[in-house]
Amino acid sequence: MSVVEDRRTIVLDQAPPLARSYAAAARKAAASAVPGLGRSARGAGGQELPPVAHRVGGVRAERSRLARYQRLMGDTLRDSLPSVFVHGLAFPIAMGVLVADDFPLPLLGMVHLANRVEHRRTIGADEALTVTAWAENLRPHFAGTQVDVVAEVSAPGGADGDASAAGAGSDVVWRGVSTYLARGVDAPGAVRPQRPSRPDFDAPMRTGQWRLPADTGREYASILGDWNPIHLSSLSARALGMKRHIAHGMYSAGRALASTAPVAGGYTWSIEFEAPVFLPATVQFAVADAAEAGPGALQFTGFKRGASRPYFSGTVAPR
Q1: Contact 285, 302 (CB under 8 A)
Q2: What is d(CA 189, CA 41) in angstroms, rounded to the nearest whole number?
Q3: Is the omega angle on the peptide bond into residue 193 within 30 degrees of 0, that is, cis?
Q4: Assessment of whether the complete model's pTM goes beyond 0.70
Q5: Residue range 1-196, CATH number
Q6: I need a surface site. Which of 132, 225, 282, 298 has the fewest CB within 10 A?
């Protein structure tokens, strides 16, 4: 399903800088004397979010950033875009939706729960892309309120075409749904579901190990621009109530996909985040066949030795 049948689309000249979005989120948090949802939320399971999508055309990868990303992840150096790099291109447009005055959830402190992505074909490094982002499916969570943030990346048929319109003649080549939790925030009248029981975690046989230094978050941010304070240093993370800074969830996703996703062609992938990766860290990593998810599908898991739950788990499958 494509975007915008029931949403007003705001076309922007360029992606808003992430630093500006985080500053806007901080101002919005400081101005909110009473925590809770804004007037657009209407009770448990409500779908009332601002009916707005943000769109930016002519988005292109910077070759130098792409190469730095590939080296950081241990990915293959190639002239096509890894899926998490595409997410990074779309992220500033999605952030613009989340920091708008009429968005009902506080951005700062929001917890990243999961991603589901369709990477529908190989995306060339020189393609001009159009990104459209919006929020949907506001609903209760046992710890607060969760929401899905959708980004669609469109391109015309040719690698050198102009995708600024993203209308007729443009195809969605990548679609991602990111699920976030506003912990402790409830819509008026919402009823939280019960916390589901957590299955016992039996650590799989490891196939690799990642050693993540303390500056992992700063390295990722310097490439894709996500300067969220919870990822930068223990000092900045403690200012937002965390005991130490953590790796970006999308760093973990990108690192996992570097060794599991097809180098060419389309694929789908998903990831669920169970526990934060506090930096510095040693992550045990495991890959196994996942035939139940389709032909050629793989399951991946990141975990800490002896822990009762994984850091993350996910699947990737060719289309």
Answers
A1: yes
A2: 10
A3: no
A4: yes
A5: 3.10.129.10
A6: 282
